[in-house]
Design a protein that fits this description.
- With about 290 residues, the chain is of the alpha/beta class.
- It has 3 domains: about 5-85, Winged helix-like DNA-binding domain superfamily/Winged helix DNA-binding domain (Arc Repressor Mutant, subunit A), CATH 1.10.10; about 90-160 and about 260-290, 3-Layer(aba) Sandwich (D-Maltodextrin-Binding Protein, domain 2), CATH 3.40.190.10; about 160-260, D-Maltodextrin-Binding Protein, domain 2, CATH 3.40.190.
- Helices cover about 40% and strands about 25% of the residues.
- It has helices spanning about 5-15, 20-25, 30-45, 60-85, 100-115, 170-175, 205, 220-230, 240, 275-285, and strands at about 50, 55, 90-100, 120-125, 140-145, 150-165, 190, 215, 235, 245-250, 255-265.
- Strands 3, 4, 5, 6, 7, 8, 9, 10 and 11 form a 9-stranded mixed β-sheet that branches. Strands 1-2 form a two-stranded antiparallel sheet.
């Protein structure tokens, strides 16, 4: 039995879909399927039920996965010991982060991290959505809400503020809102409702129950560019909007939304020197927002 086959088992158990597990491992689906069948043959066990919804662990499969995760943790512990033994900080770390924070705050600070830890390779997964730490899509992730389940280490990073913004050119030709009611007379920019990946992104209902965006994108970067082009008004994170001199805060004393960032690390990798270094870098960088 090969450890690599066990790795394939663990990935499929976390992603269910062969294609997604294969993509995460940098393999093709036929290879993943072949390795699973070989492992089942060697063990003499059916590890997965193959269903339309994906691969579902059998009772035997769940028992094997539980023991395989212990082996995986022991390997991570050995790596951590070796790193501490020679003070070496190296290897690859994958950070999952919301698109706006990743693009506006973390990406500009990566150069400083790389100068301090030149042997650490970083994957910055900045996207409209969350990388799942429990399924090992990332070693660390920054979330908008505190997770309540899983073998995770969680700590609050910082609160941040969002306000209404419009371009100076837009306000030069439109009537500047003086009350929340006036916003109904303006095109509002926001998220595509059915593609919202967290309830924390539903901002307009906190301003007024009858406000709805008419120009929508799942990308906060795209929303920012719509505002800069003069398309309308949007609720944007201040840490993004304040980088642009062409944007003006609208109703600054009347409309303000507060959210929080949470740093999540899987227990299995939290003790690795490279993960600790990345975690400290994130904390230093994001806490400047508070």
């Amino acid at each position: 039995m090969h450890w690599d086959d066990i790795r394939f088992l663990l990935h499929v158990s976390r992603f269910s879909k062969l294609a997604k597990a294969a993509q995460h491992m940098g393999q093709d689906t036929s290879t993943v399927s072949r390795r699973l069948k070989r492992l089942e043959s060697e063990l003499g066990m059916l590890l997965f039920e193959r269903t339309r919804q994906g691969h579902v662990l059998t009772r035997d499969g769940q028992k094997v996965v539980e023991r395989a995760e212990i082996i995986e943790q022991n390997i991570q512990d050995i790596v951590a010991l070796s790193e501490r033994a020679d003070n070496r900080v190296s290897g690859r770390v994958r950070i999952g982060v919301t698109e706006g924070l990743g693009a506006a705050v973390l990406a500009p600070a990566i150069a400083d991290f790389s100068r301090e830890y030149p042997a650490v390779e970083l994957d910055l997964i900045a996207m409209s959505g969350f990388a799942n730490v429990s399924r090992r899509e990332a070693d660390l992730a920054i979330l908008l809400a505190r997770p309540t389940a899983g073998r995770l280490r969680v700590r609050k990073l910082s609160d941040y503020t969002l306000k209404l913004y419009a371009s100076a050119d837009y306000l030069a030709t439109a009537n500047t809102p003086t009350t929340e009611a006036d916003l109904k007379d303006h095109p509002l920019i926001g998220y595509v409702d059915e593609l919202i990946y967290s309830p924390q992104l539903r901002y307009y209902s906190e301003v007024s129950a009858d406000l709805k965006p008419t120009l929508c994108s799942p990308s906060i970067v795209a929303q920012l560019e719509m505002v800069r082009s003069g398309a309308g008004i949007a609720i944007l994170p201040c840490f993004m909007a304040e980088k642009h001199d062409d944007l003006v805060c609208v109703l600054p004393d009347r409309v303000s939304v507060t959210r929080s960032f949470w740093l999540v690390t899987h227990e299995d990798v939290a003790s690795l020197a490279r993960v600790k270094a990345a975690s400290e870098f994130i904390e230093r960088t994001v806490k400047r927002l508070g």
